[in-house]
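User: Okay, second chain of the day. Same drill as before: sequence in, structure tokens out.
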Amino acid sequence: MARGNADEAVREYDEVIRLAPRTAEAHVALADLNLALGKRDAALKSAQEAARLQPQSGAAHLALAKSLLATGKVDEARREAELLTTAAPSLAETHVLMGRVLYRKQDWAGATRSYERALALDPSSIDALTGLAGIDARNNRLGQAQRRIQAQLAKTPKDSRVLILAARAQVAQGDLAAGEATLKAAIDADPSYMDAYRLLGQLYVREKKLDDARNEYDRISRERPKNVASQTMAAMILQVQNRGDEARARYQKILELDPQAAVAANNLAYMDAESNSDLNIALQLAQTAKSRLPDDPDVSDTIGWVYVRKGLATLGDFSRS
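Assistant: Same drill. Structure tokens below.
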């Protein structure tokens, strides 16, 4: 986990659970890891098991509340959050959690109180600051959001997480140059903070600095050779730049790394259909994407287009089913 090898950490915790199924700490760790990986249902399953094994564990119930919220079970998450804030009122993280729940309920006043309580308990809580800034932005108070962030930045000028918040606020206010400079400062403060690279790449795309954006994503890929997202973004930029052969090679490399990489599979399938290449392989790729992204209209369109190219246009009508 410390090295950022989340997938390997998941395998190790799975092995812990295989050897000792009642190890609640492993289930909590798996819940947190799966949330970080975007595997919400798996996170919820692990958190529920942890809470079952240790019903008095605050860590288990915190993981359960986060997982419930991530899977859209807001009312259940609120019940867990209420129990946690009652049981541990001096723990900032429980108030942050309640703030997130109330934010999802669009109870801006309640969420603000929870986040401010968290900050009172832990003035360095980035999660609470992020929540408050998000409420300000949602309610068209960008200036107030920026003042909150700048006040924290004055205390911790080298904190890359606060710099990221400041950059987001600057970009939201339309000051792209300041946002770019702040993101670069975040990278200087912590060269391993991948969010800064991603946001800088997105900003370059917005500014139509596509070569600069691709360079940023390539830099991420060098830092994290197994980072599918950054490699996919670089390939997509090449595709936008009409550098099809290079994009195709990138997508193929991504699929060698992860055969279930849905975006790469979909985009490569579409490119193969466009060029009328091996349509059987294109269909397999499109079906792989469909299995991972069943409700994505772009994926359904790709399958339909492959059927058209194969002379089976009527089958395309079923691609969205």
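Residues 314-321 have pLDDT under 50 and may be disordered.

User: Thanks, on to the next one.
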